[in-house]
Design goal:
single chain; mainly alpha; 2 domains; about 0% strand; elongated; Coiled-coil domain-containing protein SCD2; SCD2-like
C-alpha cells in the first residue's frame, strides 16, 4: 500500500514535469490598475528590475509612455523530480495515478490562480511606482537641463564681463601711459620756463602793488567825495521847506499882495505900487480869501500838526525842486523872497500909510441922542468895508500863528491867545477891534513867534533827516 502510494506519487511527479501554468501571457499595460495593501515580493522586485534594465532605452531623457507594453513574463515551469521517485511511481497501478493526477491538477490550478492574482496586484503596484519614478526622473532631467542652460548663460555673461574688464583695463593703461607722458612733458617745460617765470612773477607782484596803492588812493577819494556829497545833501535838504513853511510863504505872499493892492488903490507909493501889486498878485490872486480860509482852519484845529512831511513826500519834493528857481514854493529861496518883500514893506511904512488912508473913509453913525450917550467917540464911528476886511484879515493871521505856537509848545500863553482870537472872530467888528489886532501884531513881533516857529521847523527837519537819513542817500 505504501509502495503503491509512493508509486503513484512518483508517477504523478513525472507527469507534472510537463505541467505548465497554462494561460495567456500577462501584459502589464493591459492589466487594470488596482491598489493593493500587500507588500511586494523580493523575488518579483528583482525580476522586474532585471526586466527594466533590459527594456529601458539607452537615453534617460526618453520619457516613459503608458501606451508601451511591458515585456511578457515567461511561463513558470515546475522543477523536475528525482529519478528514484519516477521509478517508484511506475510501479503504482493506473487508477491511483489518475486520481492523484486529477487531485494534483485541481490543487495546482487553484494555487496557480492565487499566485497569478497576487502577481497581478504586485505588478500593478510596481508599475505605478515605476511610472512615478519615471516622472520624477524626467522632472529631475528637466531641472538639470534648466540648470545647464542657466550655467551656460552665466558663463556667457562672465565671459562678456571678462572681455569688458579686459578692454577697460587696456584703456586705463593707455590713459595712465598718456598721463605719465604728459607729466614728464610738463616737468620738462616747467624746468625750461622756471627762470623766465620768476621774472614775470616779480613784475606782476610790482604791478599788483602799484594797483593796490592806486585803489587805496581812489577809495580814499571816493570816501571824501561821499562825505562831501552827504554834506551837500544835508544842506540841500535844509533848504527844502516843510508843509507849514510853505503855508507860511503863501500867507506872507497874500499879505504883500493885499497891501500893495491897497497902495495902488489909494495912491500910496504910486511909482512902485503897481509893479509890486502885479508881481505879488501873480502868486496870490485871491489874497483875502486865502488868508480867511487858513484862519478858519486854525480856528477849527485842522492845520497840519507835523512840521515836516513824510519821507516819501520829502524825497519827491527834493527831486522836483530847483534851488535856483525863486518861484518854487518848496525851497528856502521862496521864504527869503517873501521875507525880503516884508522888510521892504516895513521900511516904506506901507502898512501905516494904508491904515491912515482907510481911517479917512470912516464916517459917524447916525444915532439918537439917548443912544449916543454912554458911547465913546470911537464907538460912534462906523468902519468902512475895507477896514472890516483888514480886521478880519489880521484876525485870521493872528489865529493861524497862535495855533502853530500852541501845536509846537512855543509859548505858555499860546492857548490863551488862541482862544481870545477865536472869540474875537465871533463878534461884530468895531473900532476897538482895529486897536486889538494892531496890539496883537505888535505882541507877535515882540515875542518873536515867527522866528521861534522857524527854528522849531528846522530842528524837526534835522531830527527827521538824522532818523531817516538823506532821502537820496541810497542813490549816493
Amino acid at each position: 500500500m505504501g509502495g503503491g502510494a509512493g508509486g503513484d506519487g512518483g508517477s504523478g511527479s513525472d507527469d507534472d514535469d510537463d505541467y505548465e501554468l497554462s494561460g495567456p501571457p500577462i501584459e502589464l499595460s493591459a492589466t487594470p490598475r488596482r491598489t493593493s495593501t500587500r507588500s511586494p515580493s523580493p523575488s518579483i522586485g528583482r525580476y522586474l528590475a532585471d526586466q527594466t534594465q533590459v527594456g529601458r532605452p539607452p537615453s534617460l531623457t526618453n520619457r516613459y509612455t503608458a501606451g508601451k507594453s511591458v515585456p511578457m513574463i515567461p511561463s513558470i515551469k515546475r522543477p523536475a523530480t528525482s529519478g528514484a521517485g519516477a521509478g517508484a511511481g511506475s510501479e503504482s497501478p493506473m487508477p491511483n495515478r489518475r486520481e492523484q493526477r486529477r487531485s494534483v491538477d485541481l490543487g495546482s490550478s487553484m494555487r496557480a490562480r492565487r499566485t497569478s492574482s497576487s502577481l497581478h496586484d504586485e505588478i500593478n503596484t510596481l508599475q505605478v511606482e515605476n511610472e512615478s519614478m519615471y516622472d520624477k526622473l524626467h522632472l529631475a532631467e528637466e531641472r538639470s537641463e534648466d540648470g545647464d542652460a542657466k550655467s551656460m548663460h552665466m558663463e556667457r555673461e562672465a565671459s562678456d564681463i571678462d572681455d569688458a574688464v579686459e578692454t577697460e583695463t587696456i584703456v586705463i593703461n593707455r590713459k595712465d601711459a598718456a598721463l605719465e607722458q604728459r607729466k614728464i612733458a610738463m616737468r620738462i617745460a616747467s624746468r625750461r620756463s622756471s627762470s623766465a617765470s620768476c621774472d614775470e612773477i616779480a613784475t606782476l607782484k610790482s604791478e599788483a602793488k602799484a594797483a593796490n596803492n592806486m585803489v587805496t588812493s581812489v577809495s580814499r577819494g571816493v570816501k571824501s567825495a561821499r562825505s562831501e556829497l552827504r554834506s551837500l545833501q544835508a544842506t540841500a535838504n535844509r533848504m527844502i521847506l516843510s508843509q507849514e513853511d510853505m503855508e507860511e510863504v503863501v500867507l506872507k505872499r497874500c499879505w504883500l499882495a493885499r497891501y500893495w493892492t491897497l497902495c495902488s488903490k489909494h495912491g500910496i507909493h504910486s511909482d512902485i505900487a503897481e509893479e509890486k501889486q502885479e508881481y505879488w498878485s501873480s502868486f496870490a490872486p485871491l489874497a483875502l480869501e486865502a488868508v480867511l480860509s487858513i484862519g478858519q482852519k486854525a480856528r477849527d484845529g485842522t492845520l497840519s500838526v507835523h512840521v515836516v512831511a513824510d519821507n516819501s513826500e520829502m524825497e519827491s519834493r527834493s527831486k522836483m525842486s530847483d534851488a535856483n528857481d525863486i518861484s518854487s514854493d518848496g525851497n528856502i529861496e521862496s521864504m527869503l523872497s517873501v521875507e525880503k518883500g516884508l522888510r521892504e514893506l516895513a521900511s516904506l511904512k506901507v502898512e501905516d500909510a494904508v491904515m491912515l488912508a482907510l481911517a479917512e473913509n470912516r464916517h459917524i453913525k447916525p444915532l439918537s441922542g439917548q443912544a449916543s450917550e454912554g458911547r465913546s467917540p470911537s464907538e460912534s464911528l462906523e468902519l468902512s468895508a475895507e477896514e472890516r476886511e483888514d480886521v478880519l484879515f489880521k484876525q485870521a493871521w493872528l489865529t493861524y500863528y497862535w495855533r502853530r505856537a500852541k501845536n509846537h509848545d512855543i509859548e505858555d500863553i499860546a492857548d490863551e491867545r488862541l482862544q481870545f482870537w477865536i472869540e474875537q472872530s465871533k463878534h461884530p467888528i468895531t473900532t476897538t477891534d482895529v486897536i486889538e489886532v494892531e496890539r496883537g501884531l505888535h505882541e507877535l513881533r515882540k515875542l518873536g513867534i515867527e522866528s521861534k516857529l522857524w527854528d522849531a521847523s528846522r530842528r524837526a527837519l534835522n531830527d527827521d533827516l538824522s532818523n531817516h537819513g538823506s532821502p537820496t542817500g541810497s542813490e549816493a
